């Protein structure tokens, strides 16, 4: 076989191979379904989380998660909803992620409330990644500090020190195969909060959260707002405010499912 003909044959075979792979990828994407969603109410039990003047984070997150689960089930009865907790009990960070992994979840949503100076307000949605500001690091350190309430945490998390900035950088640099989908969903959450629900969105961010690092599916951590902001605390403490937050996340799930499926 002449050399030129041989080369053309190889090129043709390569194009055919990549074409088949591309079509296969498109078919697989079309078959993708969000069948199982894990809803994680941050903190709980002996860990109250952050607090305002009259409100504990663990109570707000549980209420919003339960409301969100009902909304999802009403529209998508075939979607399996799994809660990391449904009562005021303490669940270790690694176990929250393992619940999602054991059930082969397609989406993991961890819900929290923020704290900071009294004038700061607004929602933030995080995906796994390298923090780019001290503010992002502060949030990651606060949420990861939950491990201090766990027994044998140094052994469970490979000597992780929640007070060390380097430890958070290490976790945030670990490759996340689902980062694109995580960021896509995070963007949809903040768009719903800002454009539809009128909340003050502080945007999509990335930082090294243990609970996100341990999950094997698209995963986000949502900070609903600041309990240290008097007006925002009042909203998040109310049943109506919690319902608005749940509906915002629910609308993001609907859009995410539509885009994928």
Could you give a short description of this structure?
The chain has helices at residues 3-31, 57-75, 93-102, 134-144, 153-156, 165-173, 179-196, 210-213, 230-237, 239-260; strands at 36-41, 80-83, 107-114, 123-128, 201-207, 219-226. By secondary structure, it is α/β, with parallel strands linked by helices.
- Mean pLDDT over the residues: 82
Class per helix and strand makeup: alpha/beta
CA-CA gap between termini: 47 Å
Question: Can you tell me the number of structural domains?
Answer: 1
* Total beta-strand segments: 6
- Would you identify the CATH architecture? 3-Layer(aba) Sandwich
Low-confidence spans: pLDDT under 50, at least 5 residues?
1-30
- As a percent range, the share of helical residues equals 40-55%
* Shape assignment: globular
User: Quick one: CATH superfamily?
Assistant: Zn-dependent exopeptidases
3D architecture notes:
- This protein has 261 residues and is of the alpha/beta class.
- The protein has a single domain, classed as Aminopeptidase (3-Layer(aba) Sandwich).
- It has ten helices and six strands; from the N terminus they run αβαβαββααααβαβαα.
- It has helices at residues 3-31, 57-75, 93-102, 134-144, 153-156, 165-173, 179-196, 210-213, 230-237, 239-260, and strands spanning 36-41, 80-83, 107-114, 123-128, 201-207, 219-226.
- The longest helix has 29 residues, at 3-31.
- Residues 1-30 have low confidence and may be disordered.
């Amino acid at each position: 076989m002449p050399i030129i003909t041989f080369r053309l044959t190889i090129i043709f075979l390569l194009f055919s191979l990549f074409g088949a792979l591309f079509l296969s990828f498109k078919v697989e994407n079309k078959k993708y379904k969000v069948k199982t969603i894990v809803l994680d109410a941050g903190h709980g039990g002996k860990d109250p989380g952050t607090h305002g003047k009259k409100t504990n984070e663990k109570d707000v997150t549980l209420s919003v998660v339960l409301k969100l689960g009902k909304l999802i089930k009403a529209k998508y009865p075939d979607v399996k909803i799994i809660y990391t907790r449904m009562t005021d009990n303490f669940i270790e960070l690694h176990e929250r992620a393992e619940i999602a992994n054991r059930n082969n979840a397609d989406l993991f949503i961890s819900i929290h409330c923020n704290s900071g100076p009294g004038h700061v307000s607004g929602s933030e949605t995080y995906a796994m990644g390298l923090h780019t500001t001290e503010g992002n690091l502060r949030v990651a350190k606060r949420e990861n500090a939950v491990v201090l309430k766990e027994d044998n945490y140094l052994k469970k998390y490979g000597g992780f020190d929640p007070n060390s900035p380097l430890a958070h950088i290490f976790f945030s640099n670990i490759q996340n195969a689902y980062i694109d989908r995580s960021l896509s969903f995070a963007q949809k959450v903040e768009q719903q909060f800002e454009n539809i629900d009128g909340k003050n969105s502080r945007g999509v961010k990335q930082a090294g959260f243990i609970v996100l690092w341990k999950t094997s599916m698209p995963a986000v951590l949502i900070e609903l707002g600041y309990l240290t902001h008097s007006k925002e605390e009042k909203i998040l403490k109310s049943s109506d405010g919690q319902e608005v937050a749940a509906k915002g996340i629910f609308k993001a799930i609907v859009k995410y499912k539509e885009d994928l499926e």
